[in-house]
Design a protein that fits this description.
By secondary structure, the protein is mostly helical. Among the domains are: 97 residues, Tetratricopeptide repeat domain (Serine Threonine Protein Phosphatase 5, Tetratricopeptide repeat, Alpha Horseshoe); 126 residues, Heat Shock Protein 90, CATH 3.30.565.10. Helix content is 75%, strand content 6%. It is built from 25 helices and five strands. It has a five-stranded mixed sheet with strand order 1-2-3-5-4, covered by helices on one side. Helix 2 packs antiparallel against helix 3, helix 6 packs antiparallel against helix 7 and helix 12 packs antiparallel against helix 13. The longest helix is centred in the last third of the chain and has 86 residues. The relative contact order is 0.04.
Length: 663
C-alpha cells in the first residue's frame, strides 16, 4: 500500500486571520468603519478586510470588494492595497479553477509590488502564484515562484513564513521525485517550527520528510518521524492529517514486515476516516486490512476487504487508490494459489497505470506546448513513452521470474500487449502529425487574413489622415477665409435691418459649418493622436466624454511610452476604445465607466468596463453588429485576445490583451 498524498500549505498568505469573532460581527464592524472613514488609506484597509471576511463565506461579495478596492486604489495611487486587491481576485479565481486568469492577475499584482518596492507583499504574492501553478499541475513553475518567495522571506528574516515556504518547497521536490532536495527543505522547515515553538505547519513538514525518507530507502527513520507526526496531528486535532500519517505508517509497516501492527493501525484509520467522511482514507484502511489478513492466511476475509476497497475507490473515481486495491487483490489471489485470478487483477492494475500515465503525459505535453518548439515537445513525449516502455518491461520481467509456473501465459500476454500498444502508439503519432499539419495550414491561412486586414487598416489610416488634412487645411481654411471676407464686407455695407438679420443668420450657419467640418476631421484622425501619441489622444477623448456629462468616464494608463507604439497599432487601439465607449453610451445605460491601459515589456493590456445594465453573453453570436465585428477584426489584426465578462444587471467588462506591440 502506498500513499500518494502531497501536502502543500495552501493558505492565502497575503491576508491575516482575525480572532474568534463571528464573521457577521466582523463584517458589520468593517462596514461601519468604511462609512465613517475620511482618509483614503483607512477606506482602502476597510475594503481589503471586508474582502477577507467574505472569502470563506460569500466569494461573490469578496470578489466585489476586491474589485472595488482595485478601482479605489488605482485612482488614489495606493500601490500596496492595489497589489493586495489584485492578488485577492486571483485567489478567488483559482478557487474556481480559473487558474490562467488567476495567474494573469497575480502577474499584475507582482508588477505593482515590484514597482512600489514592497518586498513582503511581493513574497506573499509569489507564494500565492506558486500555489496556483501547483494546482494546475505545473510543478516546475510552482517551484520557481516558491524559491523566489523563499529568497525574500530569508532576506527579511521572516522565520514564520520561511517555515511554511520550506514545507511547500519540500512537497514540490518530492512530487518532482527529487527526494534529496525534498528531504533537505523538510528538515529546514521542521527546524524553524521547533525554534519558533510552533506546531502549525510542523505536521505537514514531517509528512513531507517521511515521504522523502521512504523514497530514499530509509524506512526505519521514516517510521520514527511518522510516530511523532501522529502525536502532533492529535494535539492539533487535525484528523485529515492523522489519516494521512496512518496511511503512510501502514505502508512502512508492510515494508518492514511488521504485519502484526497493520490491523490496529488500519482500524484506527478506518474509524477516523469515517468520522470526517474521508473516503480515500477508508479505502486505504480496507487495503491495510486486506494486507493483514492475507499474512494471517485468512484469504477469504482478505479478499472481502480488497473487493470493498476496489468498489469504493471505483465509485469515488479515486484512480491512485484503485490501482493499489487491484494490486492488493492480486497479491491475495497469488498467496491463495489462484494464479489466473492474479493475472486478472494484474491486468486491471496495469489498465489503471496506463490511464494515470496517459494523464501525466497529457499534462506534460500541455506544459511543453507553452514553453518549447514542436520538435522539442515531440522529443520529450518520446522520452516519456520510452520510459514507460522500460518500466512496463521491467515489471513484467520481475513477475515472470517470481512466478515461473505462469511463465508461458505471462510471456504471451506481454507480447500481445506490447504489439497492441505499439500499434496504438504509432496510430496516435500519425494522427498527431496530421493534426499538426492541419494546424500549420490553419495558421498560414490566418496569417494571410491578418496581412489582408493590415493592408485594409493601413489604407484606412492613410486615407483618414489625408482626408482629415484636406478637410482641415483645404476646405476649413476656405470657409474661414470666406467668413473673414463676409465680416469685412459687413462693415462697409449699408443694409436694412431685415437684411442684417439674414446676414447674421448666414454667418451663424457658416460658423456651424466650420465647427462641423472640424469635428468630422477630428473624428477621421484625431490631431492629438498624430501629434502627441496614443496616451494623450485617449486621455483627450475620455476627458471630452466625461465633460459632456453623458457619463462619468475615468481614464488610467500605466507605463505607456508614446514613441514605442507604432502609429498603425496606436490608431487601431484608439478606434477599438472609441468604439467600446460609444457602445457604452448607446446601449449600457451606465453612470460610470473606466478605460485603462497597462504596458508591460512589449505587451499592452486594455480594460474597458461600466456599471450599466449588462447583457446575456450567449446572445453575442446572433447579435454581432458592425461595431463589435470591427473591434474583433482590429484585435485579431493585432494578434490579441478579447474577453467579455457580463451578465444582465451586472455591468460589462471587456479585457483585451495584445502580446506584441511591434506590429
Amino acid at each position: 500500500m502506498k500513499s500518494l498524498l502531497l501536502f502543500v500549505f495552501a493558505a492565502l498568505s497575503v491576508y491575516k486571520i482575525y480572532g474568534q469573532d463571528s464573521w457577521e460581527h466582523r463584517r458589520d464592524s468593517l462596514l461601519a468603519t468604511l462609512s465613517r472613514a475620511k482618509q483614503d488609506s483607512v477606506k482602502a484597509k476597510a475594503l481589503l478586510d471586508l474582502g477577507v471576511v467574505y472569502l470563506d463565506n460569500h466569494q461573490d461579495s469578496a470578489d466585489y470588494y476586491a474589485k472595488t478596492l482595485c478601482k479605489f486604489c488605482g485612482k488614489r495611487q495606493l500601490p500596496g492595497m492595489l497589489a493586495n486587491g489584485l492578488s485577492m481576485q486571483g485567489y478567488i479565481l483559482s478557487c474556481q479553477n480559473k487558474h490562467q486568469e488567476a495567474i494573469a492577475l497575480d502577474m499584475q499584482a507582482i508588477a505593482v509590488a515590484q514597482k512600489a518596492n514592497m518586498k513582503k507583499a511581493l513574497a506573499n504574492i509569489y507564494n500565492n502564484t506558486a500555489i496556483c501553478f501547483n494546482d494546475m499541475g505545473d510543478k516546475s513553475s510552482s517551484l520557481d515562484y516558491y524559491l523566489k518567495a523563499s529568497a525574500i522571506y530569508e532576506a527579511l528574516g521572516d522565520s514564520s513564513s520561511m517555515a511554511f515556504i520550506y514545507g511547500n518547497i519540500s512537497g514540490i521536490y518530492n512530487a518532482l521525485k527529487e527526494f534529496k532536495d525534498g528531504y533537505i527543505y523538510a528538515l529546514k522547515g521542521i527546524a524553524l517550527c521547533r525554534r519558533l515553538y510552533s506546531t502549525h505547519g510542523l505536521g505537514s513538514g514531517m509528512i513531507n520528510l517521511s515521504d522523502a525518507l521512504i523514497n530514499l530507502g530509509r524506512i526505519d527513520t521514516a517510521l520514527v518521524v511518522l510516530i511523532e507526526c501522529r502525536e502532533v496531528a492529535r494535539k492539533e486535532n487535525n484528523k485529515y492529517q492523522e489519516v494521512n500519517v496512518l496511511a503512510e505508517m501502514d505502508y512502512v509497516y508492510a515494508s518492514l514486515g511488521k504485519f502484526n501492527l497493520i490491523k490496529a493501525n488500519a482500524d484506527e484509520m478506518m474509524s477516523i476516516s469515517r468520522s470526517i467522511d474521508n473516503k480515500e482514507g477508508v479505502c486505504y484502511a480496507l487495503v491495510g486490512l486486506a494486507e493483514y489478513w492475507m499474512h494471517q492466511k485468512k484469504f477469504v476475509l482478505a479478499m472481502h476487504y480488497a473487493d470493498s476497497a476496489i468498489a469504493l475507490s471505483r465509485d469515488g473515481g479515486m484512480a491512485s487508490v484503485l490501482r493499489d486495491a487491484y494490486q492488493e487483490a492480486g497479491n491475495v489471489e497469488v498467496a491463495a494459489g489462484n494464479v489466473p485470478r492474479y493475472h486478472y487483477y494484474d491486468k486491471l492494475r496495469d489498465s489503471v497505470d496506463d490511464a494515470l500515465l496517459s494523464e501525466q503525459i497529457l499534462k506534460n505535453t500541455q506544459e511543453l506546448d507553452a514553453k518549447y518548439s514542436l520538435s522539442k515537445k515531440q522529443a520529450e513525449i518520446d522520452v516519456l513513452n520510452k520510459e514507460r516502455e522500460i518500466q512496463k518491461l521491467t515489471l513484467r520481467q520481475q513477475r515472470t521470474m517470481n512466478w515461473a509456473l505462469s511463465a508461458l501465459i505471462l510471456v504471451s500476454g506481454v507480447i500481445g500487449f506490447l504489439y497492441l500498444r505499439n500499434y496504438r502508439q504509432k496510430k496516435k503519432l500519425l494522427q498527431a502529425d496530421a493534426l499538426l499539419q492541419q494546424q500549420r495550414i490553419t495558421e498560414l491561412e490566418k496569417e494571410k487574413q491578418l496581412l489582408a486586414t493590415r493592408a485594409v487598416l493601413q489604407g484606412q489610416v492613410e486615407e483618414r489622415t489625408r482626408l482629415s488634412k484636406d478637410l482641415h487645411d483645404g476646405l476649413g481654411s476656405l470657409l474661414s477665409s470666406t467668413k473673414y471676407s463676409f465680416s469685412n464686407m459687413q462693415e462697409n455695407l449699408i443694409i436694412s435691418p431685415a437684411a442684417v438679420a439674414a446676414f447674421e443668420r448666414s454667418m451663424a450657419m457658416l460658423d456651424r459649418s466650420i465647427t462641423e467640418l472640424r469635428s468630422i476631421a477630428h473624428n477621421m484622425m484625431p490631431e492629438a493622436l498624430v501629434r502627441f501619441g496614443l496616451d494623450s489622444a485617449l486621455r483627450d477623448f475620455c476627458n471630452s466624454v466625461d465633460q459632456s456629462g453623458a457619463i462619468q468616464l475615468t481614464y488610467q494608463s500605466f507605463d505607456i511610452e508614446e514613441s514605442s507604439i507604432p502609429p498603425l497599432t496606436a490608431g487601431a487601439v484608439y478606434r477599438i476604445i472609441q468604439e467600446l465607449v460609444h457602445n457604452i453610451l448607446k446601449h449600457a445605460e451606465a453612470t460610470t465607466a473606466l478605460v485603462q491601459l497597462v504596458r508591460k515589456d512589449n505587451a499592452l493590456s486594455i480594460t474597458v468596463e461600466d456599471n450599466g445594465r449588462g447583457f446575456n453573453p450567449g446572445a453575442l453570436p446572433t447579435s454581432d453588429g458592425n461595431g463589435l465585428m470591427n473591434i474583433k477584426n482590429r484585435v485579431a489584426y493585432l494578434n490579441g485576445s478579447m474577453d467579455i465578462q457580463t451578465a444582465p444587471g451586472k455591468g460589462t467588462s471587456v479585457n483585451i490583451e495584445i502580446s506584441n506591440l511591434a506590429i
